[in-house]
């Protein structure tokens, strides 16, 4: 899968960009020349991260952005519109895992007893918030000559793998998290279909099993490696895929 490696003049927004995979995605895009805006729920952490990047010579800014708060999403649109008048890359990176402390292969299936609050809070952060922000920012993305929308999903959102008893993921039944990522994948498919015939590409990606708060300490790759697929999807050329679900060079089953 080829990518475009010069992002000079491009503007990117990375939600959840003050730590983890998001932080390394900010770094990777900035290294390619993009002006990157960190969307951070913790405004102080976002400002500290942006300042560190600036000291390293990168064009990075930060805004307070809790994607579950509609007013924050509106403010993000206003900030980007007033300062840049467009958005080239949107990385919907922010998300939560509330079913348990982290993903592991030893998951107790609590589907029958999982509270409606955990379900609703998970979908608010992992699904509804992504739609709200993307819909608000889409007019700015339409002004880009090569808009890219990257939805951070998870291989755990693959219904094909979740339904297959022979899949190594079959036992990982974190219901709220998995279902929210499957729903996000559906959003990717539908939005990509609507935007066919435009320069905008919309894709879901699996970052890998990354050693983060969600991934846990048993994960097999670090955050730098975990950012690679996000950066790949953000830098797809004109003939790259849209409406796809992949990890690095590998297409994943829905």
UniProtKB/TrEMBL annotation:
Signal peptide: none annotated. Pfam families: adh_short. PROSITE patterns: ADH_SHORT (PS00061). It comes from the Bacteria. The keyword NADP applies. The keyword Plastid does not apply. Keywords: NADP, Oxidoreductase. Transmembrane segments: none annotated. Belongs to the short-chain dehydrogenases/reductases (SDR) family. This is SDR family NAD(P)-dependent oxidoreductase. It comes from Paenibacillus sepulcri.
